[in-house]
Specification:
It is a single chain. Helix content is 18%, strand content 23%. With 91 residues, it is α+β, with helices and mostly antiparallel strands. Strands 2-1-5-3-4 form a five-stranded mixed sheet, covered by helices on one side.
């Protein structure tokens, strides 16, 4: 079963303006690899040079923040919904 990834507007330039992308992976890291294979360059926007999730990117699996789970090793269920949410700053 495929998982659904919700792509935020700033990253849709990599997905040809597609908001919802279906992928298959066992963990969030696997899902990011699938995204990179289909949409080259997107993973560099999500992860830093060490492969860790960038500080200003929030990722939720079925509404749960992966920073409080197993980060990129967080398992994803067969029909999980993965939301990528860039942090927004302003005053």
């Amino acid at each position: 079963m495929a998982q659904t990834v919700i792509i935020p507007t700033p990253l849709r330039k990599f997905t040809n303006d597609t908001e919802l992308v279906e992928v298959e992976g066992a963990t969030v890291g696997d899902v990011f690899q699938q995204l990179e294979t289909r949409f080259p360059g997107i993973q560099a926007r999500l992860c830093d040079d060490t492969g860790e999730l960038r500080r200003f990117i929030n990722v939720y699996v079925d509404g749960e923040d992966i920073r409080f789970l197993e980060r990129l090793q967080t398992p994803v269920g067969a029909r999980a919904e993965i939301s990528i949410v860039p942090a927004i700053a302003g005053g």
